[in-house]
Amino acid sequence: MAILNTKIAAVSYLNTVPFVYGIQHADSLRAELLLAPPAECARNYLSKKADIALVPVGSLPLFNDAEIVTNYCIGAEKSVRTVTVMSNSPISEIENLWLDSHSMTSALLVKILAAELWNIKPQWKELSDYSIVQSSAEKDAFLLIGDKVFPYEGKFRYTYDLADCWRELTGKPFVFAVWIARKCTDPELIDALEAALETGVERIWEAIVEYGHDDKDYAYPYLTENIDFLFDYQKRQALALYWDKGQKFAPRANPG
Known about the structure:
The protein is α/β, with parallel strands linked by helices. The chain has 8 helices and 11 strands. The chain has helices spanning about 15-25, 40-45, 105-120, 160-170, 185-200, 205-210, 220-225, 235-245; strands spanning about 5-10, 30-35, 50-55, 65-75, 85, 95-100, 125, 140-145, 160, 175-180, 230. The protein has a 6-stranded mixed beta sheet with strand order 2-1-3-10-4-11. The protein is globular, with a radius of gyration of 18 Å.
């Protein structure tokens, strides 16, 4: 019997397409999907608009009533491609670093890397007007995340892939988002979600075609070579390390 009346918040980027496909094709799960940028997914869960959510790891300390569920995530074992800092100057010369407002998780990661890997102290600025990227000053750098990265590939002299930089700093993979549910959630619902996600990850090409991404030559390589969906032991360790380091740079207060 299908489990009904479940609201699931998920990220509205290409990297979530396999999950969306799996949920929408599940035999034992009928769910209303709420698709939004990462920070909005966290807010949908906080406001109880969603029962289950794929949330950025930067928001985890907000959820006292939640626990991480499923063995799936949005992660990267090597280059992630869609979480980058781009600039026309070497990172050592950057004066202003504009932070994409759609994800505080990536913004916190940049601050960790700035202090512990790059040894820089730039002026931090919020990037909400993306037209600024097209008229950047020489000493500006931009944190860009998600699908908006693709149009800017090759447009800047320097691109720093943050998953690569994290691995250079720590030797570990990185986890960008995990699935959470409230602690009282029916275990059968979690099992149904797990099965749905497994289906999606096993049918990546079908998902790409169904949602109209098959005309993008980067879609399949991105989802099979850059994104790693398995939330394994190494990624769990990496997540704990991220939060240990992140406490120095940001309070655990805002979703994203």
